[in-house]
Amino acid sequence: MSYCVNCGVELDDTAQSCPLCHTPVLNPNQPVDMWGPKPFPTEKGEVPPVARGELALLISAMLLSVAVCCGVLNLFLRAERAWSLYVIGAAVMLWLWFVPPLLLRRMPVCVRLVFDVLAVALYVFLISLDLGGGNWYWHLALPIILLGGAIVLCLGLIFRGGKRSILTTTTLIIGAIGLFLLGVELFVDRFLTGAWQPGWSLIVVTVCVALVIPLVIVRRVPSLREEVRRRFHM
């Protein structure tokens, strides 16, 4: 039995170099066994990846079976409310979230976000059918969903251009939250009273602006930016 002259690890008779420090094995009293079995596999084994089409088919079958079973059960029980619409809507939403990106490998980020927004809009639409809320869906829920989707789409396009720093990302997200909540109050007020009366959203926007301004200043001043990165390990 040989030992590595550099690190002292025990060597197998078939080892041509130390497996720990990669020092060549030179032992004239015990030549390297070139024909004996290796103590470890010499070929790299890899598990073949699952085909995207098969995975998409599996997810589609699972979601379809859940939706069909709940729909049939709802009809069989003769329930007064179509509670199965909630399950069917959730299945459709999950299908739009997962299956198209699997089938379309190079789907752009904007197209994927559009699918996500449409899935959420369809799910809420099915809920409105059960609750008889077509009015609040078209005049309140759908505008809020589209506003949130537009903001997320803009953020996705901005972040797609390259890697952003934590300061820049935080600044954009805080600004987007303030803009979204301002729009939410706008749609709620117009739906309930017919006129926009800004109140709580202005408080949120003020807080967001108060947070964004220091972040912008820190980002613009190199010395402050480096100090923040050093102290917060960013």
From TrEMBL:
<dbReference type="Pfam" id="PF13240">
    <property type="entry name" value="Zn_Ribbon_1"/>
</dbReference>
<protein>
    <submittedName>
        <fullName>DUF6320 domain-containing protein</fullName>
    </submittedName>
</protein>
<feature type="transmembrane region" description="Helical">
    <location>
        <begin position="137"/>
        <end position="159"/>
    </location>
</feature>
<feature type="domain" description="Zinc-ribbon">
    <location>
        <begin position="3"/>
        <end position="25"/>
    </location>
</feature>
<feature type="transmembrane region" description="Helical">
    <location>
        <begin position="111"/>
        <end position="131"/>
    </location>
</feature>
<dbReference type="Pfam" id="PF19845">
    <property type="entry name" value="DUF6320"/>
</dbReference>
<keyword id="KW-1133">Transmembrane helix</keyword>
<feature type="transmembrane region" description="Helical">
    <location>
        <begin position="200"/>
        <end position="221"/>
    </location>
</feature>
<keyword id="KW-0472">Membrane</keyword>
<feature type="transmembrane region" description="Helical">
    <location>
        <begin position="166"/>
        <end position="188"/>
    </location>
</feature>
<feature type="transmembrane region" description="Helical">
    <location>
        <begin position="55"/>
        <end position="77"/>
    </location>
</feature>
<feature type="transmembrane region" description="Helical">
    <location>
        <begin position="83"/>
        <end position="104"/>
    </location>
</feature>
<keyword id="KW-0812">Transmembrane</keyword>
<dbReference type="InterPro" id="IPR026870">
    <property type="entry name" value="Zinc_ribbon_dom"/>
</dbReference>
<dbReference type="InterPro" id="IPR046283">
    <property type="entry name" value="DUF6320"/>
</dbReference>
